[in-house]
Amino acid sequence: MELNCRRAELELEHAGTLNPGAWVEHSRFVALACQNIAARCENLSADQAYCFGLLHDIGRYAGISSERHLIDGYRFCMERGWEKAAQICISHAFMIQDIHTSIGTFDVSEEDYRFMETFVKNAVYDDYDRLVQLCDALALPSGFCLLEKRFVDVALRYGTPPATIPRWKKILELRRYFEEKTGGAIYALLPGIVENTFA
């Protein structure tokens, strides 16, 4: 099954009927951020980036969960032959390639945990992985926001485990990386970010 923008939109829409929640609108804003930034990067397709952003949390279709949504999303995409999207379903949560830097709870079987541990360690990240990692931190369900607002949003919901500060530093590093690639401030590419950040 070919992955294209319309297919990704339909899959997200259907997933939202199975497990309604703020994650659906968050995913849409992640996708738009990916699209806008990728459009300024020579080595990236804006359409592909948009698809990966839409699908990064697709595993939430299976119901309310913590880290289980990562492997649920991986399997969802692999069943459709979308290998890169499947990787991003897991990699978006691990900007540091170490499963122990997770901020969630591993509500998965021991077998699934071991699979994810090996997968994260051995995954070869490219700019699509990095872009979704960044854009995941630029989007609330209500729209785009400064990274620091999203950091606080996540910390209030998940707490501040030991890897919190290293993860923040890595995301800030990704922002600088993509600003070099786009030749300007990332925030300038995200319409409404000022209004939503200070709402």
Automatic annotation (TrEMBL):
It comes from the Bacteria. Signal peptide: none annotated. It comes from Candidatus Choladousia intestinavium. Residues 24-62 form the HDOD domain. Transmembrane segments: none annotated. CDD domains: HDc. Pfam families: HDOD. InterPro entries: HD/PDEase_dom (IPR003607), HDOD (IPR013976). This is HDOD domain-containing protein.
